[in-house]
């Protein structure tokens, strides 16, 4: 296992930790072992490829902590008051199957803000805190908005089932593209599915299931029949209009400064009015950032930023990168995750936004790695 545990990194982590406490955050700790069920519910089975999994005879399946946000949200939703600011420091554990030089055990230092009063102001507070903290490193800041992408998917004129599938795979760009091409009539259904549907139409669901042989695996007969019914319904659904697909693709490909992106999105909202509320939230956030002294006219906006790595975010997202070091991961990332609080709060939602810094990567940028 490649470690990221030098004395210099620990010292930098403690410096960042102290900075967040000075900014008003309460220091907290979380267990290193986290219940796998919670993480699997959030990330799906994909998390197994990135997390270290073990089994406890009493607690069941457990994972070495892949991040801090989930356990901090669980803690706050149990008994936290509002508003609340938390900071933490410690190791997280991630497999790096395709990045052999990157550590699998490394420090994170983070800051989380729970506040109902003004989400735009909270977004601006967190971003400007990280921006000021990291400004000596000369990093490039990028921002995005997962909420706009989700709103654009919800605005499509198609079935709720199709929209749910697109939302679920938003963080898997290849799978999302495949679904969008099929739902938009630009690609055919897989041959195996086409053969199944042909057989069902000619012979009926029950006959096809009987011919398939004895039940194997977790799915029962009723679940298999329901799945086939869903496939039949989808096959009978008209394609999403080409114009709507083009608008969605335009939104997802938008890369501009924040102010220019906002103007583009306002124009798009004329043809896709269901994104208007998300665009209004972006407008308020940019006003709040400007009030904090951020030059939003020079700040980058990438509509699809965070799609591959920030599964539980559902609004504003940001990251800080060393442009001259493409070999390095982001120095810091963060964003809004209101939906996560609803899932972990069993229906009770608290607006929340936060971010994490990797002190080891920060030191790599400055040449201060031990």
List the defining traits of the structure above:
13 strands, ten-stranded mixed beta sheet, globular, 18% strand, BirA Bifunctional Protein, domain 2, alpha+beta, 370 residues
Tell me what you see in this structure.
It is a single chain. Helix 6 (160-168) runs antiparallel to helix 7 (173-183), helix 8 (191-203) crosses helix 9 and helix 12 (258-271) runs antiparallel to helix 13 (276-291). Strand 4 (53-56) and strand 5 form a beta hairpin. The chain has helices at residues 7-22, 36-43, 69-79, 119-134, 146-154, 160-168, 173-183, 191-203, 205-211, 221-235, 242-252, 258-271, 276-291, 338-344, 359-366; strands spanning 3-4, 26-27, 33-35, 53-56, 60-64, 84-93, 105-114, 140-145, 255-257, 300-302, 316-321, 332-336, 352-357. Strands 1, 2, 6, 7, 8, 9, 10, 11, 12 and 13 form a ten-stranded mixed sheet that branches. Strands 3-5-4 form a three-stranded antiparallel sheet. It is 46% helix and 18% strand. The chain has 370 residues and is an alpha+beta fold.
Provide a concise account of the structure shown.
The protein is 46% helix and 18% strand. It is α+β, with helices and mostly antiparallel strands and 370 residues long. The chain has two domains: 3-153 and 246-366, BirA Bifunctional Protein, domain 2 (2-Layer Sandwich); 159-240, no CATH class.
